Amino acid sequence: MPRVADLRIKIFSDGADLPGILAMYRNPLIKGFTTNPTLMRKAGVADYEAFGRELLARVPDRPVSLEVFADEFDEMYAQAMRIASWGDNVNVKIPVTNTRGESAAPLIERLSKQGVVLNVTALLTLQQVRTVAAALAPETPAIVSVFAGRIADTGVDPVPLMAEALTALADRPKAELLWASPRELLNIFQADAIGCHIITATGDVLGKLDLVGKDLEGYSRETVQMFYRDATAAGYRIDTRAPILAVG
Questions:
Q1: Which of 49, 86, 168, 187 has an alpha carbon within 20 to 30 A of 5's alpha carbon?
Q2: How far apart are CA 9 and CA 199, in angstroms?
Q3: How many Cα neighbours within 13 Å face the side chain of 207?
């Protein structure tokens, strides 16, 4: 049976609900945090900078990724430099392209050479990984976030691609590969098995960590008990005394 204690991969929490983040912060298993504008909007964040600064103040000793949201590269650069100034533990998230599909590689190279610690996000192809690897400064730490869950959503097994991504990053020893958008807890063990450095997951996935190593016979019985309990609570009835009509 798998054990959480045997995992080598770093588990990050993905979200934008500050109380939820702080609850995860109290869990020593959680080694860092990621968020994005979509999660922030869903969480009702109204002031991006105020939220980012408070998050970094409340979580001062683990990596926190905060994303630029401009679409023009000059403005992305200005936002990235501002976000980088908010705390020593911030990773500035840069999308691999803008909305027109134009590569962010020149911006990534510029920022990385200036020592800005990046989290390059929204990668889904090996070519994107290779392009980003070439743009990163070897001496500057970075995270490369490949959305393995979205790859799986298209019917493609992401595990071989993620293994190849590790090879593509081999000459960037300070760049860490992050398995993004996992759909189930099993993905943590898949990512760990291939040597992925980081996986980030939302609370609904991380909430299943307590199930790791659970006795499956006992889990089967709990499932049967759940079905029985819910049917009883709903008041379902089948009249077993009525005659059974012939079928066919």
A1: 168
A2: 7
A3: 6
Neighbours of 131 (CB within 10 A): 19
CB of 142 within 8 A of CB of 116?
no
**What structural domains does the chain harbor?**
4-215 (3.20.20.70)
Q: Are strands 90-95 and 118-123 parallel, antiparallel or unpaired?
A: parallel
Residue 62, amino acid: R
* Cα 46 to Cα 40: distance, rounded to the nearest angstrom: 8
Task: Tell me, yes or no, if the pTM score tops 0.85.
Answer: yes
Maximum distance among all Cα pairs of the chain, rounded to whole angstroms = 82
CA dihedral of residues 180, 181, 182, 183 (deg, nearest 10): -170
Kindly report, residue by residue over 38-77, the tens digit of the pLDDT: 999 999 999 999 999 999 999 999 999 999 999 999 999 9
Buried b (16+ CB within 10 A) or exposed e, 63-91: bbbbbbeeeebeebbebbeebbebbebbb
Check if the beta carbon of residue 120 is closer than 8 Å to that of residue 142: yes
Nearest C-alpha neighbor of 131 from the set 120, 140, 141, 139: 120
